[in-house]
């Protein structure tokens, strides 16, 4: 709801693609600055408590955006609040995303990630759709922001019911090597580096979602309600694929599948960029969700399987910068290129670049296509706490 409401509010007030692209840059900056701090916090303190702090901050930010929208406040206040969104997400990802491996056996990771993804995508479907409907009914974004604040508050309450798992006390003072251990882990595991790099550039160049307000208002002429459905379409595709994945046997060649689905994501992005039909645009966005969901499940399962628990917070923080916030940097890239060359060329060019990334990944890391079932992998036992 926050994403769709911010996009509509900014484009309504400015009519400028740069304003949409700047959202991604503003949200990305604090993540880059706080990546090391957030990752270490998730490994040093109970992850549930760090997650409660992060989502409490998101509750306050959503409330602040509602007040700014109601008062028609200045743009700099909106972007300041979006910077706090980035701050909260920097701490939320390495804490909340690393609770699951503490509760399950490795053989359960892939299936659990598919179910987790399905619940996330259910929110990704209903959130934008309801947000767009609220904007259409009320004529502004205030109500959507207020509902988003309520949703964050509910999540904080849910987190408070989780068990507190305290990390073992440190036996020695932390060194610089401990602080940057996540970087060392990613560097020393080329398969994981290949997976997150593939996702990084795939999402970076395929950031068509950031331009949906332009497509909804100027190209497809479907208004805020149509924007909500366009924004929800990838979630519908991802939810559908997630539910299918829960019934599938473990992939025998997950690396090869990862390469194919990222290529499919690029092709679907090209189709959306060229489409002038609302129905065809919905289908293309649906397919981006299908392909992206398979990629997410494979990458998360690979991360959880090969990472020792005492490093999960630091590794997850790096992974979030590579992949999670490639969405925000991709939004900046899409907004910037749309302002310079137009939205169609921006989206189609991004899809073509995604296909090129797949070819480069296969060339640089040919071993990615040869890895076996993910549950057969294991953490490096030489990496002690």
| Superfamily (CATH H level) name | MFS general substrate transporter like domains
Query: What is the H-and-E element order?
Result: HHHHHHHHHHHHHHHH
The helix tally amounts to 16
Radius of gyration: 20 Å
Instruction: List how many beta strands DSSP finds.
Output: 0
Q: Would you tell me which CATH topology applies?
A: Growth Hormone, Chain: A
The secondary-structure class comes to mainly alpha
Inertia-based shape = globular
Provide the helix percentage.
over 70%
Fraction in beta strands: under 5%
How many strands, which pairing sense, and closed or not: the largest β-sheet? none
Describe the structure.
There is one protein chain. The protein has one domain: MFS general substrate transporter like domains (Growth Hormone, Chain: A, Up-down Bundle). It is 77% helix and 0% strand. The chain is built from 16 helices and no strands. It has helices spanning 2-14, 17-44, 47-71, 75-96, 109-138, 142-159, 176-179, 181-188, 190-205, 212-219, 223-245, 254-274, 278-306, 312-324, 326-341, 343-364. 55% of the residues are buried.
């Amino acid at each position: 709801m926050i994403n769709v409401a911010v996009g509509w509010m900014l484009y309504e007030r400015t009519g400028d693609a740069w304003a949409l692209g700047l959202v991604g840059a503003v949200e990305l900056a604090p993540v880059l600055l706080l990546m090391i701090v957030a990752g270490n916090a998730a490994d040093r303190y109970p992850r549930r408590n760090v997650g409660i702090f992060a989502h409490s901050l998101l509750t306050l930010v959503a409330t602040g955006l509602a007040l700014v929208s109601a008062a028609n406040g200045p743009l700099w206040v909106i972007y300041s609040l979006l910077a706090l969104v980035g701050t909260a997400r920097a701490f939320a990802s390495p804490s909340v995303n690393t609770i699951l491996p503490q509760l399950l056996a490795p053989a359960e990771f892939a299936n659990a990630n598919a179910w987790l993804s399905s619940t996330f995508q259910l929110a990704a479907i209903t959130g934008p759709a309801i947000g767009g409907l609220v904007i259409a009914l009320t004529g502004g974004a205030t109500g959507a922001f207020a509902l988003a604040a309520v949703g964050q508050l509910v999540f904080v309450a849910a987190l408070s019911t989780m068990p507190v798992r305290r990390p073992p006390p440190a036996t020695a003072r932390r060194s610089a090597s401990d602080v940057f251990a996540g970087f060392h882990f990613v560097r020393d595991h080329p398969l994981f580096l290949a997976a997150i790099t593939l996702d990084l550039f795939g999402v970076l160049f395929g950031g068509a979602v950031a331009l949906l307000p332009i497509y909804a208002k100027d190209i497809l002429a479907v208004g805020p309600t149509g924007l909500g459905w366009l924004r929800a379409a990838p979630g519908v595709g991802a939810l559908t694929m997630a539910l299918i994945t829960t019934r599938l046997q473990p992939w025998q060649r997950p690396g090869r599948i990862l390469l194919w689905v990222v290529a499919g994501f690029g092709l679907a992005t090209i189709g959306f960029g060229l489409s002038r039909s609302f129905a065809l645009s919905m289908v293309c966005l649906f397919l981006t969700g299908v392909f992206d969901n398979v990629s997410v499940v494979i990458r998360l399962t690979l991360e959880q399987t090969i990472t020792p628990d005492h490093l999960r917070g630091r590794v997850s923080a790096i992974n979030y910068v590579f992949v999670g916030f490639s969405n925000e940097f991709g939004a900046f890239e899409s907004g910037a290129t749309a302002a310079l060359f137009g939205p169609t060329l921006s989206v189609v060019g991004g899809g073509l670049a995604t296909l090129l990334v797949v070819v480069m990944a296969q060339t640089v890391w040919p071993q990615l296509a040869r890895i076996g079932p993910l549950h057969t992998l294991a953490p490096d036992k030489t990496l002690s706490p």
